[in-house]
Amino acid sequence: MRHLFKTGLLFMALSLTLVSCREQEEEKSEMEQLMEEDDAKVKVKDDKIKVKTDDKKIKIKTDDDGDVTKKVKIDD
């Protein structure tokens, strides 16, 4: 009985280690996806980021307080 219990604990510890250490692919944010497009134009200033594609214009601005505002304009 002890042998079975020790083997079970060892198996659980090993499986938990393998599951927790596997690499997980991170999802890219919307901005990263837009920046990777071939036709995307990105302009970065002090507290502003502008991304322009054929069908979207996105402006991200950071205030003095640290508030982030995002404006999305979709061209039809």
Please describe what this structure looks like.
The protein has a domain at 25-76. It has 76 residues and is of the alpha+beta class. The chain has helices spanning 2-21, 30-36, and strands spanning 41-44, 48-52, 56-62, 68-74. It contains 2 helices and 4 strands. 1% of the residues are buried. It is elongated and about 70 Å long. It has a 4-stranded antiparallel β-sheet, covered by helices on one side.
Question: Could you list some keywords that capture this structure?
Answer:
alpha+beta, 76 residues, four-stranded antiparallel sheet, 36% helix, 30% strand, 2 helices, single chain
Computed CA radius of gyration, to the nearest angstrom: 24 Å
| Topology pattern, helix = H, strand = E | HHEEEE
Share in β-strands: 25-35%
Mean pLDDT level:
82
Strand order of the largest sheet: 1-2-3-4
Calculate the terminal CA-CA distance, rounded to whole Å.
71 Å
Instruction: Please tell me what the overall shape is.
Output: elongated
User: Count the strands?
Assistant: 4
Number of helix segments? 2
Residues in helices, as a percent range? 25-40%
Low-confidence stretches: none
Q: How would a textbook summarize the main sheet?
A: 4 strands, antiparallel
Structural class, by secondary structure, is alpha+beta
